[in-house]
Specification:
elongated; 20% helix; Gyrase A, domain 2; alpha+beta; single chain
């Protein structure tokens, strides 16, 4: 891993693998560092400071934390687990079944059978990249993205699952839909799902 300067108020930790991001984020969060924010991403963790004068000291502290063995990957916690009801009728559900060699019912069982962890957020306000699900569901993105994906669409791509918070272009494989509101500017915080939370999908008829 590398610890890099990122402007005057932040450090960027480049992890060797995507699997290191959650333990690194957990280790830094548990170290009670004098930071304003820790932001995990696909292969990095941003350490943002409120005071640029603290940067040299915080860099030393971060380097010391990363020199220790990383904690085990976090396990689901009930108070940070969101249950999301899904109607599995997505346009790409049959394609996902073909790509994985599973039946449609087996795809649904795999998607609902394992909790998904919110690894990081991005792409659109409220969009959470969910990992840690059944590895059999690792399917590629569409060759040609759709120009419009309906809000609430539940999808798979590149080992992640996600829910489109609003209508937007997108290239993920659509397997279902939900009525959950992922982003509400009048809510505090606006994003329903945040890094470190968990999602348990359940199948419903409507």
């Amino acid at each position: 891993m590398r610890v890099l300067p990122c402007g005057e108020h932040a450090l960027l930790i480049e992890c060797d693998t995507a699997a290191q991001v959650a333990p690194v984020h957990a280790a830094l969060a548990g170290a009670a560092l004098p930071v304003a924010e820790l932001v995990p991403a696909a292969r990095t963790v941003l350490v943002r400071l409120a005071d640029a004068d603290l940067l040299p000291a915080v860099r030393e502290l971060v380097t010391a934390v990363l020199a220790e063995p990383l904690p085990d990957p976090p396990a689901p916690v009930a108070e940070r687990t969101m249950t999301v009801a899904v109607r599995y009728d997505g346009a790409d559900l049959a394609r996902v079944a073909d790509l994985t060699g599973l039946s449609i019912q087996a795809v649904i069982a795999a998607h609902t059978g394992t909790p998904w962890r919110v690894a990081f957020c991005g792409f659109a306000p409220g969009f959470a990249y969910l990992d840690g699900g059944d590895p059999r569901l690792a399917v590629p993105r569409l060759t040609t993205p759709r120009t419009s994906v309906p809000a609430g669409s539940v999808a798979l791509a590149d080992g992640f699952s996600g829910i489109y918070p609003r209508s937007s272009p997108g290239g993920w494989q659509l397997i279902g839909r939900t009525d959950v509101t992922l982003w509400d500017a009048g809510r505090e915080p606006p994003a329903l799902l945040r890094p470190g939370w968990w999602v348990h999908f359940v199948a419903v008829d409507r």
